[in-house]
User: Fold this.
Amino acid sequence: MSVIAPQLDPTLAGRELPGDTTTITGFESAIADHALLAPTADGKTAHPLWFLVLALRGMGISVDELCDLAQKQHDDTLLFGTCEINQSKPLIVGATYRTAARITETGRRSTRDGSILDSITVDVHLSDETGSEAGSVVSVYLFKRGIRS
Assistant:
């Protein structure tokens, strides 16, 4: 058997994603603080992990839709590669954040075991209600292609 995986669509790199608007509610923030064991949480400032939550919600497409763009098959495995969070200022509980998202690059490489590993890099910029930048998140989604005959 050999790995035969379709090439990623070359037009993906540079593609703008819809983006979104998300409000960090007090209820969701409190649940996250509890789950993250953040005993010093003040209820006003959201935990920095919210940058990742906003980036996932803020692509404007679901992870399943991202998998569709990557032509993920049943025997492929989605992996979360790297994640770079650039925080310009703290996120505020109760505030609404707008995101602009774009696929910046795609790639393909072979792993040591001979598998094909495709990657899609998504860059999400967050701004607050005034339009001021709150930060950005660059995430790399990896698609380990399964064995096909």
